[in-house]
Amino acid sequence: MKSFLGKLTAYILLLGTLLSMYILIVYFRPDLVDLFYYRFTTPKASSLILGSSRAAQGLKPGTINKKLGRDENTKIINHAFAGGPSTIGPNYYREITQKLKQGSKDGIFIISVTPWTFTTGTDNIDDDSLQFFEVKRKLYVGNLSSSSTNPNLEYLWKYWHNKFSVFEYAFKYMINYGGILRLHADGWLEVDIDMDSTVVNQRIKTAMAEFTETAKHVKWSNTRYFFFEKIIGYLQKRGEVYFVRMPVSKDMAELEHTYFPGFDEQMKITADRYNIHYINFIHESGKYKTTDVHHLWRESSEIISNKLSDSLLYYRNNQP
Amino acid sequence: MTFNSFEYFIFLPVVFVLYWFVFNKSGKSQNILLVLASVFFYCWADWRFLALVIVNALFNYYMGISIAGAKKEKTQKHLLWAGVAFNIAILGYFKYFNFFYDSFVDMLNFFGSHANPSSLKLLLPLGISFFTFQTLGYLIDIYNYNIKPSRNLLAFSAYVIYFPKIIAGPIERAQKFLPQIERKRTFDQNMAIDGLRQMLWGLFAKIVLADNLFPVVHGIFSNSGSETGSTLFMGLILSTIQVYFDFAGYSNIAIGTSKLFGMRLMKNFDTPFFSTNISDFWNRWHISLSSWMLDYLFTPLSFVLRKRKKKGLILSIMITFVVVGFWHGANWTFIVFGILNGIYYIPLILKGKVIKSSLGGSTKIFPSATEFVQMLGLFLLLSVTIIFFWVNNIAEAFTYLSHVFSPSFFVFPDLKRVVYIIPAIIIFFVIEWMTRDKDHPLQFSGQPVYLRWGSYLIIGFVVLLAFEKDPNAFIYLQF
Hints:
The complex is a heterodimer. Chain A is of the alpha/beta class. Chain A has twelve helices and nine strands. In chain B, helix 3 (about 50-70) packs across helix 4 (about 75-110), helix 3 crosses helix 6 and helix 4 packs antiparallel against helix 5. By secondary structure, chain B is an all-alpha fold.
């Protein structure tokens, strides 16, 4: 029995060592875990870009920081995720409070608004936050005890579904595979995929069909709007808040206009009520290259980030 | 709690330590622990039917003694039939009531009556098909004087509820199991280490392969209307492999776990995809069920029908396989699964070649071209039957098959979703082929230590990476 237990212990220890080495790789390259893990390993910040995947992919903190002259302590990071996890609601509110540096005062907060992030399923009759998709599914945003620990073992245990991702990355790297999604340390999600017009058009077609279908099964949520106001209130105590509406493909802009005709007006009213600038690029939809129906291509992201920075500079320099 | 859950890897070491260090005074104390641990294990999975398991154990224990104790053969026969009827009635009620009721309603509706389907949906007690067949076999063996009845209620209870096999087999024979459980077990290091290796291989098959294949197969079957024929064909192949990985993986974990407690369970899979004919296949696939059917159903049936010669044999095979199909589940799909397997036997019977191929045990490095073609052909035929595990009704299966054999069959399939799993599957089968004369592929003593330990570590590491906090259920748990 002693020999058996000895061998078993040796095996477990060796296996533990292998696992620790793997986690060590992840410690140095958190971007290899998945699309969003990196965000939960970077330090807390005083300025944030918030919203869904449009912001995650479309707004480059590096460009904005450079233009606004933000240093290491005051730099803005992208903490936008995707439609599901970072839809406006209780979870995202919790996440924001967790990622913000304690006691920070001079922050800049760019909230990317889309009508979709204010919706809930039509079956959620009472507009109950407990029925929100991200709440019911206990998605990672707002459900971790820390959003700034490296390695974030809680995330790795609970939400790292494809633990072979490091090997996959190495394999793709070796064969020089083009379709790489890379999350940068500042939170920008770089998407390097096939931009051949036929492929893009196919993506647009598929996504349009999906969104058109989704639009029929969602409705405006006052509860989400309540949390939106709660987030604004929280952030305004810690700095300046800006709303931005990202440009999308022409098809998507039309679809949003059809299904959410009063959205821009609603945002304007909210912005005025809270004395916030609303920087609206929706009318420039179709002008910039997108990877699909609503995500900006990386070069378009650079242009929009520059334009947004110019607007921010203008508003900051011309404050009453 | 299932074998691939986090809880199991807490439960197992605790029971192991208690078994060998605290309850190791006598066979009785070991059995007390095994029964308690098994009750805990069963209740964790589903406590609602524990009473049913207890009733099964008590009834069959006393029935076994009664059959053996009866003076007249006629009384013995009556008692046996009573025992069989009781077990079948319980199984029939819980597993088949809804099926028969709904089929009856469908029939009435077909003939113009307007009947409503049953609103009573009975829950299926976990492991009922496995423990019922086990105790049925026990009673028949006593009646046939193959074994003496157990007079040790504790040991018999352990036989019924033993946690490594309670929920999905193997369907253990009392003849082999009871002598082991009725004596005190002493720790055998080689056996325990071999058990761990077998568990590791089982976990690899289940967690790494089956669970990664499942979403691919499920995706193809869910969107079968919009997939190309070639992708559907790929789904057909992968679904068969997935079921094998899932169930053979489960069986290896069960057998390996049992070895840790000094108990040997019967082999349940023996490289079935290297079979060259259907008879050979059923000698190697779900062996505990197929041998049960052979001993308790096919053999008596073919004896009764022996005067009809080949026709009698065909009839016996068909009845046996309808029961095999029906054992899997209360659905017409499983009956078709059984019928197809039965039909595959007919050419063999007509040629008088219902024999076991010796290929699995041979030491040839490569199979001959003929053997390879036979293996491949059989595999494709089997895939057509396994499809019935994945569909909701027979029409769905035939629609799927008709889409496979469409012009889009010649379009290159969508391999992106299986780019990583295909090499792993190939490696798995190559290793299985190379070690087909062993109990399991990790039984490679005699190899250099670095090779053995290197393999254990790589497999263990891959299993750890693939481990999911919320594990996928084993397919055979539903049966």
